[in-house]
Specification:
- By secondary structure, the protein is mainly alpha-helical.
- It has 2 domains: about 1-130; about 155-385, no CATH class.
- About 75% of the residues lie in helices and about 5% in strands.
- A hairpin with a 5-residue loop joins strand 2 and strand 3.
- Helix 6 (about 125-135) packs antiparallel against helix 11 (about 205-230).
- The longest helix is centred in the first third of the chain and has 32 residues, at about 50-85.
């Protein structure tokens, strides 16, 4: 779990402040400074445990983000050289400066074709780092990218076609890349790449649609990572004896979270995709929405494979808990073959306190996602409002 020392909350405040500074700046110097402050605050979150895998992932993340920041600075300098202004409104006059700016933001997001770093980074960091990387760290680059594309797409149909193709291929790569993954972190990384494709498509459709989709993705992703964080799962093979004494309920929570993330109706994750499909039909982008749906269906396949490994795994698994050889069956009961009964009682008591907090948290999570079924009936009114 994350350290409760004061420096931990300090770093959280630093990277949150960096994103807010980037989103509230009117010129590229302030945007660049905010992104750098965000990076300096997030790197310690990645490496706070001092594990070799975390250090390696933190170095990869630092190099990629530094490269993206360099491309953003290059684009802003090219824009200043042409228009003698750092303002965002002057970018439409400079086509050549837009290319490094857009590529830098897409590199920071992990979008296709700059997606190669995201699975390897997420495979080596903690669940807290994964949760922040796939949610909050996408806020500033995604909305900055949307503000860049706003107005520029209307002037060039070629740019619109290129970004629609990037969105479609990002969804397909996110679906195909997760098929052969056995580690849950890498699987959710490819899932994040697929959702980035939907968000890029939302940038073309409209800023309001992006806000709705991103808000839903933000909430559902936090729910998924909180469940996995409290269960400390890393591989499919560990999912059959999660949460031991409350395994059935915990498995149900995780299954609903994953189906909601995949966009299965009537859960909350379906509302965002249904809204995007409805607007794409009105906007006339049939080919791109087909690519997005194909990638989403492939992603749903490996969500269901994880579901089957959770719900249909039977038999008995031998694991070591606190130095004692224990046998966990599918129902969550266990038999200890060595050690004293007092030690087992202490372990059971600690597990009860931990499971109480998990039960309260998970109940809130499942209610939030099941409420999505109600919002489906209001989606048409939401579209009319937007």
């Amino acid at each position: 779990m994350f350290s409760v020392m004061p420096f931990g909350f300090l770093f959280i405040f630093v990277f949150v402040f960096g994103s807010v500074l980037s989103l509230s700046s009117l010129h590229w110097i302030g945007i660049w400074v905010g992104l750098e402050v965000n990076l300096m605050g997030f790197i310690p979150i990645l490496v706070y445990r001092g594990i070799t895998q975390e250090t390696e992932s933190g170095m990869k993340y630092f190099i990629i983000q530094a490269l993206g920041s360099g491309m953003i600075m290059l684009g802003s300098l090219m824009c200043f050289n042409i228009s003698f202004s750092w303002e965002l409104t002057s970018l439409s006059e400079s086509v050549f400066s837009m290319v490094p700016l857009l590529f830098g933001l897409m590199l920071k997001l992990g979008s296709f074709p700059f997606h190669f770093w995201l699975p390897s980074v997420m495979a080596g960091i903690s669940w807290l780092g994964c949760m922040v990387l796939t949610t909050w760290q996408k806020v500033a680059p995604m909305f900055l990218l949307s503000s860049l594309l706003y107005g520029w797409i209307e002037k060039s149909l070629l740019v619109m076609g290129v970004f629609l193709a990037i969105a479609g291929f990002s969804s397909i790569v996110g679906g195909i890349g997760g098929l052969n993954q056995t580690q849950i972190r890498s699987l959710l990384a490819y899932s994040s790449i697929g959702h980035i494709g939907w968000m890029l498509f939302c940038c073309v459709c409209g800023d309001d649609v992006l806000k709705v989709y991103f808000m839903i993705y933000f909430v559902v992703s936090i729910c998924v990572f909180l469940v996995l964080w409290f269960s400390e799962l890393s591989f499919f093979s560990q999912s059959s004896f999660m949460f031991l004494e409350k395994s059935k309920m915990s498995q149900l929570y995780l299954v609903i979270m994953l189906l909601s993330l995949g966009g299965m109706p009537p859960l909350l994750g379906f509302v965002g995709k249904w809204l995007v499909m409805w607007l794409s039909c009105n906007g006339g982008f049939p080919l791109c929405i087909v690519m997005l749906l194909v990638g989403s269906l492939i992603s749903l396949f490996y969500y269901l494979s994880l579901l089957f490994s959770i719900m249909l795994f039977s038999g008995c698994s031998l694991v070591f808990v606190g130095g004692y050889l224990s046998c966990f069956d599918f129902n969550g009961s266990f038999n200890v073959s060595g050690g004293s009964s007092s030690k087992v009682g202490e372990m059971t008591l600690l597990g009860e306190f931990g499971n109480l907090g998990v039960l309260v948290m998970s109940s809130f999570i499942i209610i939030m996602n099941l409420v999505g079924g109600i919002f489906i009936y209001l989606s048409l009114l939401l579209c009319d409002f937007i």
